[in-house]
Design a protein that fits this description.
- It is built from three helices and eight strands, in the order βαβαβαβββββ.
- By secondary structure, the protein is of the alpha+beta class.
- It has a three-stranded antiparallel β-sheet with strand order 1-4-8. The chain has a three-stranded antiparallel β-sheet with strand order 3-6-5.
- The protein is globular.
- The N and C termini lie far apart (about 30 Å).
Length: about 120
Amino acid sequence: MTDRPTVAYKVLTADQMAAFERDGSFAGAPVDLADGYIHLSTAAQLTETVEKHFSGQQHLHVVAVDLGSFGATLKWEPSRGGQMFPHLYEPLLLETAIAYGPLERDHEGAVKLPVAG
């Protein structure tokens, strides 16, 4: 048994989200392509990820991803401050998304998680 989350999140620009919906897959943002994997964040890491990597950007979207959909292509690796982040070493498929929507924040400024349905 593991205490790792079963859901992770990917932040996409509006253009990336439109392409993801149209194509059914997402090969990665420029940083993902440069690093060789798709950067994902846990719910606890999401707000900091948005503030660090998407500051000032508008029209962002958050995709919730079922981590159980991936086998050995999903790796937990240390990143920011030694935190373990999920990294996906294959394209992200739309069928693995369990929810997605525009990035919204709560009254304290934390990123709201997308809700299916």
